[in-house]
Amino acid sequence: MEAGVIPANLQTISGTWGALYDGGDLTYLNLVHLAECDGTSPDSMTINEIEGRRQAMLAVEALRRFHPGCDSAKLRNFGMTIGIRDTRKIEAAYDMTELDVREQGRFDDSIGIFPEFIDGYGILILPTTGRYFQLPYRTLLPKGVSNLLVAGRATGGDKVSHAATRNMMCCTVTGQGAGVAAALSVKHGQELERLDIALLQAELRRQGVRLH
Hints:
Layout: E1 13-17, E2 29-32, H1 42-66, H2 98-102, E3 110-115, E4 118-120, E5 123-125, E6 132-136, H3 159-165, H4 168-188, H5 197-206
Antiparallel strand pairs: 1-2, 3-6, 4-5
Helix pairs in contact: 4-5
């Protein structure tokens, strides 16, 4: 900012980068965060995608100018689209809570586990302790709608729990759980809200899923 590379009023460039390959490439740069982007609006996403790429080039120039070893750095490519961490979520039969993701929540209807990895809203807890929480089947079931499952970042939960469950690896847990539940629902003629949890857990175990 003092050198005029980044405008003084710009507070959106900060973050992390990944490992360095032997050939000199960084695996990724996660440096531009545009909190005002509305992920439900195509216009807002377009405007922020343009702005995000503009700021990414400012960040690359700052690295070239001031970070040792980056003086000849070149950007290989952008993310193909702007990444959205949070839009709409369902109100579920069970909404995950901050306590669940911080204090190793346990559930009888677990469909999988996820480490104590919280990243968002100013909280960063890395998965280095071996602690983990379970994901309940009920967090996939929206209130007031029958025979529907919701997986991924839209599952039920509060703000802090979302900072854990929105992670891609956690989305694979709820996605596999939802897919297996849907198949069993059709195969056995059971409504999703009344699905035999033991049957679901047995099939997930057969597929190698760790439930507890």
